[in-house]
Each structure stands twice: as C-alpha cells, then as structure tokens.
Amino acid sequence: MEPHNVVCDLESLRRLYSLLQSNTNNEPLPQPFLLDENTQFVLKRLLDSATKELLATQSNILAQVEQLRLPEKVRGTKVKRESVDGT
Fold first, then answer.
1. CB within 8 A of 47, min separation 6: which ones?
2. Helices (H), the chain
C-alpha cells in the first residue's frame, strides 16, 4: 500500500464519519445526504470495519519495516562478529 493511498483512504473515512456525525446531530444537510436511522447504523458498521482493517494493515506494515531496521541482537539473536583477520 502506497502512502498516498493511505492518506486518501484516511481522508475518505474522515469525511464519511463526518457525514454520519452530521446526520446523527440532525444538522441541516442537502436532501441527498440525509440518512435514515438504519442507513446510519449500517454506514457506522462499515466505516468501523474499514477503519479497523486499514489500521491493522498499516500496523503490520510498520512492524515489518521496524523489524527490518532492527539489528539482529535486538531481535533476540546475537550478531556473530568476525575479527579483521577473518577469525
């Protein structure tokens, strides 16, 4: 997953949560954006699931990147060092 896509996905989730919040608070919205109670419930479940999936994916990617950066000794195995003369 590319960083640009992650930012776009997070921004899309934010906008959809904002729409849901506006409907929940009965804020004035154009007719096409008004959601009935059942639609709000379904949208909330979908958004929560998508958010959980996105954050889990990003967490796994960051963990893999971090593991690649850590020296062997820190990950639990000792690094075998050779002397300058190869012994």
1. 13, 16, 17, 20
2. 3-24, 37-69
- The SS3 call for residue 18 is helix
Closest by CA position to 40, among listed 14, 13, 15, 21? 21
Distance in angstroms (rounded) separating the CA atoms of residues 76 and 66: 14
What pTM was computed for the model? 0.70
- Chain segment 25-63, per-residue pLDDT in tens: 999 999 999 999 999 999 999 999 999 999 999 999 889
* Cβ pair 73, 39 in contact under 8 A: no
